[in-house]
Amino acid sequence: MKELITKSEKWYQKIGNQRDWVWRGWTTRYTYMRAKQPTKDTQSHPLILIHGFGASIKHWRSNIPIISEKHTVYALDLLGFGASKKAYTNYQIDLWSAQIYDFWQTFIGKPVILVGNSIGSLVCVATAANHPEMVKGMVLINLPDVSLRNEIIPQWLNPILNTIEAIMTSPVLLKPLFRFVRQRKIIRLWANFAYFDKKAIDDELVDILATPPQDEGAANAFCALAKASNRTDFSPAVRKVLPTLNLPILLIWGKNDRMIPPALAPILAKLNPQIKLVELDNAGHCPHDEYPDVFNSLVMDWITNNFNTKR
User: Fold this and answer.
1) Which of 8-22, 81-95, 179-193, 291-305 bottoms out in mean pLDDT, i.e. has the lowest?
2) In Å, what is the CA distance from 152 to each residue of 157, 169, 266?
3) In terms of DSSP H, where are the helices of 142-181?
4) Is residue 249 part of a domain?
């Protein structure tokens, strides 16, 4: 596939038409790019791209221009991330799922394909379960299952851990920690841990990750997110939900992911016969950004194979 973007282009030149949308009183950011040459043989399902923790619509800068050659693409900054409001609220996967669903109702209104990375893939799973009428298929990238904690940790240990977590998620401790971790040098270290391919870590990526934490309210939002992520109701149990979904699913996993064990990939893939698993060598937690040419081809070929009108 011919690469249509260059390194000289800035991220804001690559991700389409950015707009603000007020959702439940909060300002949120989204972008879209219309299909340039819609394919005639494939049903026209728009894509909604959902980023992972700490990322934003900018993280899709190498995917949106290519995928939009054939398909209309939308991407959202989840509440608390990117250019969306850094709200101090009760964060959970279902909250972000509601954001995606309300956006779909407002701007799209026909079945879509959801694409999510990490926590974004959890949002995809929850949305498909909560609103099956809107989701025609899903691409899940390095899908976590936070419910594993409840199975691994003995019940008698939970009260002790809850006490520790309550202390560690106190704003008194978290706000100074946040001011430390949002420094560019620390964010670059995090990127080096998340990415296996170090060539993908450049100044633009660091800018993309380091800018939102400087926003007003970012420290409070960080505290709310840290507190929420330890609750048992933060996320659906992936291994219970996946078998109930009746739609094509492409599961892409970087085999060198240091954040979510790659061994989880084949376990999840066996839960639903409609899941196609693709494991990528020399890729970490963000294969869509580490190897965008491979990722873009995988997604577009999968769409053609599953939604071709001539089949």
Assistant:
1) 8-22
2) 11, 22, 19
3) 148-152, 158-168, 171-181
4) yes
Is 3 within the bounds of a domain?
A: no
The pLDDT assigned to 171 comes to 55
Domain with 105, as residue range(s), is 11-307
Identify residue 56 by its one-letter amino acid code.
S
User: Is 66 contained in some domain?
Assistant: yes
pLDDT tens digits for 270-306? 999 999 999 999 999 999 999 999 999 999 999 999 9
Whether the CB-CB separation of 84 and 28 falls below 8 Å is answered with: yes
CA 175 → CA 79, 83, 92, 179, 181, distances in Å?
A: 19, 20, 20, 6, 10
**pLDDT tens digits, residue range 217-246?**
998 898 888 878 777 778 888 999 999 999
Q: Which of 23-27, 43-47, 77-81, 301-305 has the lowest mean pLDDT?
A: 43-47
- Number of structural domains (the chain) is 1
Rg value, the chain, Cα: 19
How many other CB atoms sit within 10 Å of the CB of residue 181?
Answer: 15
pLDDT in tens, 45-64: 999 999 999 999 999 999 99
* Both tokens assigned to 201: 């870590």
**Phi (first) and psi of residue 288, to 5 degrees:** -65, -25
What single-letter amino acid sits at 64? I
CA distances from 58 to 106, 229, 271, 304 (A): 22, 23, 32, 26
* CATH code where residue 203 lies: 3.40.50.1820
For residue 15, is it within any domain?
Answer: yes
| pTM of the full structure | 0.89
> How many secondary structure helices (H) and strands (E) does the chain include?
14, 8
Amino acid, single-letter form, for residue 158: N
3-state secondary structure 246-268: CCCEEEEEECCCCCCCCCHHHHH
Sheet holding 73-76, edge to edge: 17-23, 26-33, 73-76, 47-50, 112-117, 135-141, 249-254, 275-280
